[in-house]
Amino acid sequence: MPSLRNTGRQARLLLRSMSTLTRTSVGVLCLILLLLLVGPSLSPYSYSAPVGDVWEGMSWQHPLGTDVLGRDMLTRIMKGGRLTVMLAFLATLLGFLLGTFFGFMSALVGRWVDILLSRIVEIIMAFPSLILALIVLALIDVSKGILIVIIAVLDSTRVYRLSRSLAQDIVVMPYVETARLRGEKLGWLMRREILPNVLPPMLAEFGLRFGFAILFLSALSFLGLGIQPPEADWGSMVKENALSLPVALVPAAAIALTTICVNIIVDWLLARAARVRSATPEV
Amino acid sequence: MAVFRLLATRVFWGVVCLWVISVLIFSATELLPGDLASVVFGQAKTPEAVESLRKELGLDRPPQERYLEWLAAAARFDFGRSLATQRPISQLIGKRLQRTLLLALTTACMAVPLALLVGMLCTLWRDSTFDRAVNAAAIVVISPPEFFTGYFLAFFFAVKLGWFPAVMLTTPSMSFAEIVHAIFLPCVTLLFACFGHMMRLTRAALISVLEDPYIETARLKGLSNRRILLVHALPNAIAPIANVVVINLAYLVVGVIVVETVFNYPGLGKLMVDSISSRDIPVIQACSLIFATTYIVLNLTADLISLLANPKLRHAVAT
Amino acid sequence: MGQPNKDNDLVLDIAGLSIVSLHQHGAQPLLKGLTLRLRRGEILGLIGESGAGKSTLGLAALGYQRTGCKYDKGVVRFDNLLLHSGDEKTLSSLRGVRMAYVAQSAAAAFNPVHRLGAQITEAARCQAALSRREAERRMVSLFRRFDLPEPERFGDRFPHQASGGQLQRAMIVMAMLCEPQLIVFDEPTTALDVTTQIEVLATIKRNIRAHSATSALYITHDLAVVAQVADRIMVLKDGMLVEENDTKALLTKPQRPYTKELLSVYQVGRKRGGGKKKGRGVLLRGEGLDASYGDGARILEDVSFGVSEYEVLGVVGESGSGKSTLARVVTGLLPSREGSLWLGGEVLPRRLKRRSKEQLRRVQLVSQIPDTALNPRQKIGEALGRPLSYFFPQRTQAERERRLGELLSSCELDSRLTNAFPAELSGGQKQRVCIARALAAEPDIIVCDEITSALDRLIAKGIVNLMLELQEKLGMAYIFISHDLGLVRAISDDMMVMQGGKILSYGAASGIEKSEDAYTQKLLRSVPQMRVGWLDEVLQKRG
To answer: Is C371 in contact with A193 (Cβ distance < 8 A)?
Structure first.
């Protein structure tokens, strides 16, 4: 299978182009994701039932100790992390679809569409996002769907700005004009002419927004407005255990480790995107 | 002159944003499922009690009228009474706003000069060990959530070492040194959260300016590196740097909410979070209006600085 | 000759200089052992196409390498000081005072936030070479000599408050302020229009030549320009010297084939059978076209023209003349405000969206910069295949592939290029692909918007010849838009001269000299001619 071999070769090349720090981050992030995926089903404990004393220290039975109700911390971290990462990913994905579509449309169509969309985005962005989320969540009952939509909409404004400005640089390129002169439709222009050319910076932005989504969701849960008990995510676990500092640090550290890895990888992606851009021939 | 028109347009948009946001915040009460009274009394509401509360809050009058009254009162810093404590909200807020400002401003005074200085040093010694180390450290420090940084610092410096208090209380009789000592940990937590962004973006802005052709001209004029950076690069990077600084200050205003909760610091952010859990709508309105206004005014300032920093706008083309 | 460092007259002595560019995949040589000598008061022209290493050499003469370039071996000696091994401090003390640099684009080379005067006197002030008062006095007197407006107050302007030609002259003032021994001119007139270029050339000629203590390196790709100012010319190619001789000897008796080729680029011609297919009626006609961007000023005013089948209509103008806007109006990218267009017998709608697929197919555009005219993420095969499948959906796959091969071969491109991305092609190849893409639609008329101006002269000549051959073979019409009056005149049947959005003269290209329009005459006079003494004649005529 030549294509598979080819992919393998490309992956090796990609890994070689990273610094040690970046490579370590990729490794750690993969490990975290694997743990979240298979961990809960391998664990002998239930994530919801007490299995020991309150706030037990680290031991062989409970590698990360127990929480405020005596539940096994490691199991809960893996289970809660699943929720955090999944919600953050879905929210980012939705935000990206929205933001990119409207951003490209603004750049391509211009005129009143651009003005209208930009003004709406400007007004949403003029509002500090945490405050906006807090107000909305204070007024309506929290559900996972609502959380995803709120984070996605707030995220999409940033994505809109980026994709619009990237696309604006490309829309004026003669090759896009050539496609327009041929009479190509909006869909073709978006998918074939613009998208492939903005992929590297957009990929970096996706990572960045994913990291922010994890932080944002965790902050909401930490403030008691995100995931509600009996379900738990990393942020709400920090809140539950806030009265015993070293215990609260465990879920907080899980978030920190994940976001640090994500941001290091994003930094590498950004540098790569900048290199791709500067490597295009100059006139 | 063109620059005045641009400035006026920008200010006008700021005002429009403020207006839209005040409407949004006000209509928060209208959007409630049921209405405010039901929220306050919960299951135990009686028709009479609901009616008297509606009267008291003026909910029986048309919303436009109430909006204008509310806005006029808010402009005089009068937000009505808290539902939970029945105390005037302006009293509740006054002290807390001061404490929050103290926290945010102290952080800003440390973070901004430090970030600009380190950003400039990184540019001057680009790709040196110092540059790489600072950049890696910046990523590690800005990535975790504030509550991780906060608890981490509290655990080591307050619980283990006992150098600083873990729970903050400032009283009017404290000396300046005592106040700084008391708010040290929350300040450092906020500093960690915004310093890295400011430093990295300062560096990025300067480096992008250093690639402009007029920098080569300056080098070929035999100017020193320091003069090139300070006289030729920095003035051209003012707009992006001012933007970053102000955005991070705006971020401070919001980041304060989480940090105040972590350290139990009785500021505006803590008040807002507490009010949300008790659904004390007028207090939430007041707090979010203050936060949003600060945020918008700061963003507006950034735009105005960028406009004024552009010589093409300040000095019209002579014909 | 003996030891060069004993020669008191020698200002610059470069021997066996090699410089490499640092790449991801190792080092690539930019200069390969170059040797150069410059005497006091001499102007040496460095000429070559892109990649010849002339800018690298010019900067190396000032002991400077751009980021990504590295000194390899050789000697750079300036007035008995070794520059290639000099420390930053020594170099700094020389630069701006004893040696100076004039960049290609003065508009980008001045810092936008500082006033011109402050930037011009900066080197002198910072290095304490002159007192502030003395520096300003000299600056004003140079402003006056260079015919800059309001010489007393010109220094108070910001860069954006001066025109391109004024900035270029201000840059020369900056270079000359401390009366340096060496000035490096790096394409100082390339970014300027011809009528502005002549002013800057005159300034350089008058002031540097008159100043016997100053020597200069004059870097350019334009032989006709360098012939006017240089005493001696070095022809460079791929970082090596091709030929070196006195200006007059080099122009009249070139030794090397490459030099001869460079000289021949000024002789583009069109050999055609006396318009045998011409006169079959008007193909494209525009009447009273007005256009503007947004609500701004009018960029086209009352433009009318007609193109017959198998005709070349040349459009000449300087920047801001509206010539590219005309291309956008004809193709529909910018709908005209007033006026109308006819294609064949039918009205051509102003808006792109109103035009039928057939109309879109019949009018094709080839644009200026081939690097941006091809989508970097589409292979050449895709770029050429799309118009084939879009405009001719009824054709079979096999027919399309055959047609693709035809297109590539008719544009003299290798058929293996279908699998290449644009970044793997040279500038000339990319422009050929763009032409092939236009041909794929089997158009009746091709609008060529400055298709040669981003290319080296030799490659541009190849492209023009290709266009003419294709026309001979396929018989379509061209609207050929360019700033290069000589080129347009050589290949057009009819031509028009535009300025400020208006047509100033319009008629047979062969009769353009007889135009009564003053601007057209000025333009004709300003096109540099490949002979020594042309500039002097023009300046003398003006008195």
So the answer is: no
Chain B residues with CB-CB distance to C176 below 8 A: none
- β pairing state of C494-499 and C312-316: parallel
Interface test with A, best of B13, B30, B148, B297 (most A CBs within 10 A): B148
- What is the overall mean pLDDT for chain B? 80
SS3 content of chain A, % helix, strand, coil (to 5): 75, 0, 20
Res C341: pLDDT = 92
Q: Give tens-digit pLDDT for C152-199.
A: 999 999 888 888 888 988 999 999 888 899 999 998 888 888 888 888
Distance spanning both ends of chain A, measured CA to CA: 41
Q: Do B276 and A219 touch (CB under 8 A)?
A: no
Distance separating alpha carbons of residues A143 and A156, to the nearest angstrom: 20
Alpha-carbon Rg for chain B, nearest whole angstrom, is: 24
Is B292 an interface residue toward A (CB < 8 Å)? yes
Phi, psi of A14 (to 5 degrees): -60, -45
Q: Do B222 and C157 touch (CB under 8 A)?
A: no
Give the residue-averaged pLDDT of C75-83. Answer: 85
Q: How far is CA C155 from CA C50, C137, C174, C211, in A?
A: 34, 11, 11, 23
The span from the CA of C366 to the CA of C450, in Å, is: 8
Tens of pLDDT along C442-455?
A: 999 999 998 988 88
Q: State the sign of the Cα–Cα–Cα–Cα dihedral C220, C224, C225, C226.
A: positive
**Considering only residues 245 to 274 of chain B, which have any Cβ-Cβ distance to chain A shorter than 8 Å?**
250, 253-254, 257-258, 261, 272-273
Residue C86 has pLDDT above 60, yes or no: yes
Residue in C with minimal Cα distance to B237: C113
Taking the Cβ of residue A127 and every Cβ of chain C, the question of whether any pair is shorter than 8 Å is answered with no
Contact check, Cβ <8 Å, A262/B143: yes
CB-side exposure of C330: number of CA atoms within 13 Å? 31
Does the structure's ipTM exceed the value 0.90? Answer: no
Nearest-CA distance C127 → chain B (Å)? 8
CA distances for A228 relative to A143, A225, B125, angstroms:
9, 7, 49
Neighbour-count burial for A169-185, b at 16+ CB within 10 Å, e otherwise: ebbebbbbbbbbbbbbe
Q: Which of A1-5, A50-54, B85-89, C502-506 has the highest mean pLDDT?
A: C502-506
**Which member of C352, C357, C371 has the closest CB to residue A283?**
C371
Enumerate residues 162 to 181 of chain A having a beta carbon within 8 A of any beta carbon in chain C.
Answer: 173-181
Residue of A nearest to B29 (CA): A139
Q: Which of C101, C109, C113 lies at the smallest CB-CB distance from B311? A: C113
In degrees and rounded to multiples of 5, residue C36 shows phi and psi of -150, 140
DSSP string of C262-273, one letter each residue: HHHTT------S
Residue C396 is given by DSSP the state -
Helix (H, G, I), strand (E, B) or coil at B69: helix
What Cα–Cα distance (Å) separates residue C480 from each residue in B165, B221, C328, C436, C509?
Answer: 79, 42, 13, 17, 12
Given CB atoms, is B92 within the 8 Å cutoff of chain A?
Answer: no
3-class SS of residue C99: strand
Task: Provide the residue type at A205 as one letter.
Answer: E
pLDDT > 90? residue B88: no
Q: Is C352–A182 a contact, with Cβ atoms under 8 angstroms apart?
A: no
SS3 per-residue string spanning C20-39 = EEEECCEEEEEEEEEEEEEE
Partners of C233 in beta bridges: C45, C245
pLDDT in tens, A185-244: 888 899 889 999 888 888 888 988 999 999 999 998 888 888 888 888 888 888 888 777
Residue C2's pLDDT is 38
